[in-house]
Amino acid sequence: MATPTLVKGARSTRSTIALKLAMAVSGLIFIGYVLAHMYGNLKAFSGEEAFNEYAHHIREIGEPILPHAGALWIFRVVLLLALVVHVASAVALWRRASKARTQKYAVKKNIRSSLSSRTMRWGGLTLLLFIVWHLLHFTIVKVDVSTGDTGSDNPYRLLVDSFDVWWMTVIYLVAMLALAMHLHHGMFSAIQTLGFTNTAKSRARAREAGWILAVVVAGGFSLVPIFTLFGVIS
Amino acid sequence: MDLTLNIWRQPDAVTHGALHTYQLAGISEDMSFLEMLDVLNEQLNAAGEDPVAFDSDCREGICGTCSLMINGQAHGPEVTTTCQLHMRSFKDGDTITVEPWRADAFPVLKDLVTDRSAFDRIIQSGGYISANTGSAPEANSVPAPRDKAMRAFNVATCIGCGACVAACPNGSASLFMGAKITHLGELPQGQPERYTRVVDMVAQHDAEGFGGCTNIGECTAACPKEIPLDVISQLNKDLRTAMKQGR
């Protein structure tokens, strides 16, 4: 696909780096969201009343200036836009990368890249599937797998009844492993794409940030299902 | 030492190629990798076969002409160019697979030779500074801070061999571009064109069909000149600044 001519009228916004910047910024929005979501989930340790009160409060943020659940819908719209930008840029870059090397190597070794960095695309798709499943489970249909009921109005009971089922806990823990891997490289990659790693030291810091974020978010999320399965949260 | 070589043979740019197996005996471990291929070619010549075409020029690791993907690693298992790789890095009885750089922006011309003129066009699009002709100006009239000068000199060691592209799973030339952007952008002489340079070079890079960077770091592991990953951060930062300036 090499071209013998020079590009005329180059624009920064039409470059692959612009797509990467879009991925980095939308990714940072998700990071902010998962941190808040993880913190909210830990309310399960404070018991049924505290957890349900928290869930209810999310719908009242900004009232009476905002309508009921107004802030929640603003969050949802922002997240949905970030998801569209993140996935669309990823698809565009993935297609580009597969066209950049149509003849594969017979032998190719990976020397320095981490497993998480090499699984960003398929790992991202796994997370997308998980998000669909997770929204159906807890937000849209609200299925209580132990009773088969739908549309539960008690978030705490729905949570406990879900994670009392071992395979449900396993699904969520596997998803958290995928999330940890995606965040481990994603955090570093976003910082690098935004151009904040111009020295060896700042690059090492950005890698540490990836590790810390992965452990804090995935670890924090995993606590609730594990402690529910072992009966601490009941 | 005795070796089994799997070498990519392709008669020309349009015909499809394949790996061919050759046996080679009595190779000295003091030979360079290219001298080993010279021995193979003498053997092929004597048998009336077409010798294996590969790129080389200075054979002292400074020109960037040699290439070769050796057992899945650009320039082979050591941090150096293929011409400075020696057979002592291999063992008697080894099977060595030799392939050309694989990137659609580097089309194979014959056997192991690729057309890397895409890099020339990236340089042509912005990898220069404008200077008046005439007698050379006094060298010390434009002071450069030491740390910036050191960084510029360090990344100016890029020889444009293309190992970064060859090693990158996305076939991206970001490390190469980053080296040029950083080298010129750190010095006072590079400032006037700094932000048009990055936009033009990235646009040319994209038009040549190189992939986008995913910050994986295989490029810097393969680089014979050990260009660090932070040049890609610099590239991103300069492009972001150019974007802010509406370029």
Report the sheet with the most strands of chain B, covering strand number, pairing sense and barrel closure: 5 strands, mixed
Largest sheet of chain A: none
| SS-based class of chain A | mainly alpha
How many E-type strands of chain B?
A: 7
Helix content of chain B: 25-40%
Structure class of chain B: alpha+beta
Fourth-level CATH superfamily of chain A: Fumarate reductase/succinate dehydrogenase, transmembrane subunit
Strands of chain A, count? 0
**CATH topology description of the largest domain in chain B:** Fumarate Reductase Iron-sulfur Protein, Chain B, domain 2
From N to C, what is the helix and strand string of chain B? Answer: EEHEEEEEHHHHHHH
Q: What is the distance, rounded to the nearest whole angstrom, between the alpha carbons of the first and last residues of chain B?
A: 58 Å
Cα radius of gyration of chain B in angstroms: 20 Å
Residue ranges of chain B: pLDDT <50 for 5 or more in a row? none
Strand content of chain B: 5-15%
Helical residue percent band of chain A: 55-70%
CATH class of chain A: Mainly Alpha
Helix-strand pattern of chain A: HHHHHHHH
Radius of gyration of chain A: 21 Å
Q: What is the CATH topology of chain A?
A: 3 helical TM bundles of succinate and fumarate reductases
Looking at the overall shape, the CATH architecture of the largest domain in chain B is: Orthogonal Bundle
Domain unit count of chain B: 2
EC number (chain B): 1.3.5.1
Family (chain B): Belongs to the succinate dehydrogenase/fumarate reductase iron-sulfur protein family.
GO molecular function (chain B): 2 iron, 2 sulfur cluster binding; 3 iron, 4 sulfur cluster binding; 4 iron, 4 sulfur cluster binding; electron transfer activity; metal ion binding; succinate dehydrogenase (quinone) activity
Cofactor (chain B): [2Fe-2S] cluster; [4Fe-4S] cluster; [3Fe-4S] cluster
